[in-house]
Design brief:
By secondary structure, the protein is an all-alpha fold. It has a single domain, classed as ABC transporter involved in vitamin B12 uptake, BtuC. A two-stranded antiparallel sheet has the order 1-2. Helix 1 packs parallel to helix 12, helix 3 packs across helix 10 and helix 4 crosses helix 10. It starts with a helix and ends with a helix. The relative contact order is 0.19. The N terminus is likely disordered.
Length: about 325
């Protein structure tokens, strides 16, 4: 009898990201049909590398969504753009300096997350409004400090995140996979993860269990900001250059990828693995649209329509469960 709940839980976990797995497989098959070079090691490696940046952005968004209270972080892209421009100005000549630079950009993001969390929990500002305001403030701050001009030279250590380690896998790809796996274990197997899920699912019950709901919610935004800060620096290492607002598009994509991966917009339910698979879905979809030579503007329209469909489907499935 004791094994049945565990088996049910495992099945529920699988159901969360099963649609993402099926979507990835279907899109890869379609891509192979459209182009014989779509499933080459080189192209798959490029897809995984591009997905890695979105995976980190999705992890940041996922933490906030799971925490509930109508949580959402619309400042993820702005924070990424900020650290993409400010991060490379920090000395990174040695491994130690590179590590300190990572800590610094994560600290920048965490500070933004702290302000977001405090405004939402202490001042009662809706998350949608607070994080949107923060996105504007962060963009303005970045423009004021950098005058819109990025660092001319990038550290070889930073550029090294794009180095191929194994066929189809680069340094950043392996780092993203390891981070997602570790966070999924924390979410499922540790008190911290279970507390985050309980707060998102039923704040009142969490309070009765002795959890500090406000603190956990604020820390969710702090974590989101820190990870977004890291993602912005890695984005520069991948692209080799930085421009103003270069990561703003990741805000919408991170929300979409998280929802595709099974995260509930009402909180208390989600998966980091599912979010990572959702990121791959969007990158593969974009690659297919490029193969079809669809203009960039039309690709954004298609992605937006897909997000609307996903949100409607997610909302309907929640009503059915209720």
């Amino acid at each position: 009898m004791a094994n049945k709940p565990r088996r049910t839980l495992n099945l529920d976990n699988i159901r969360i990201f099963l649609p993402s797995v099926l979507a990835v497989i279907a899109l890869l098959v379609l891509g192979r049909y459209l182009s014989g070079r779509f499933l080459t090691v080189k192209n798959l490696g490029s897809i995984l590398m591009t997905s890695s940046i979105l995976m980190f952005a999705t992890v940041a968004q996922n933490i906030v969504l799971i925490s509930g209270n109508n949580g959402i972080d619309l400042s993820v892209g702005a924070v990424m753009s900020m650290t993409a421009l400010l991060g490379p100005t920090i000395p990174m000549a040695t491994v130690g300096e590179f590590a300190l630079a990572i800590v610094a950009v994560m600290g920048m993001g965490a500070a933004c997350g702290l302000i977001n969390g405090a405004g939402i929990r202490q001042l009662g500002i809706p998350a949608l409004i607070m994080t949107l305001i923060m996105a504007g403030v962060v963009t303005g701050f970045t423009m004021y400090v950098t005058k819109g001009r990025p660092a001319i030279e990038l550290s070889p250590l930073l550029l090294g995140v794009s180095k191929t380690v194994f066929p189809m896998f680069r340094v950043l790809t392996l780092a993203a996979i390891a981070a997602v796996a570790a966070l999924e274990i924390i979410l499922r197997k540790t008190r911290i993860g279970r507390s985050l899920t309980l707060v998102g699912d039923n704040p009142r019950a969490a309070e009765l269990c002795g959890l500090r709901v406000s603190l956990i919610s604020v820390l969710a935004y702090v974590s989101s900001g820190a990870i977004a800060g890291f993602a912005g620096l890695m984005l520069v290492g991948y692209t080799g250059s930085a421009v103003m607002k270069m990561a703003d598009g990741y805000t919408l994509l991170s929300v979409a990828a998280a929802i595709i991966g099974g995260t509930s917009v009402s909180g208390g339910r989600g998966s980091f693995i599912g979010g990572a698979l959702g990121a791959i879905v969007f990158v593969v979809l974009n690659s297919i649209l490029q193969v079809l030579r669809i203009p960039e503007g039309a690709r954004y329209v298609i992605q937006g329509c897909l997000l609307v469909v996903i949100l409607l489907t997610n909302n309907r499935s929640q009503k059915l469960r209720q």
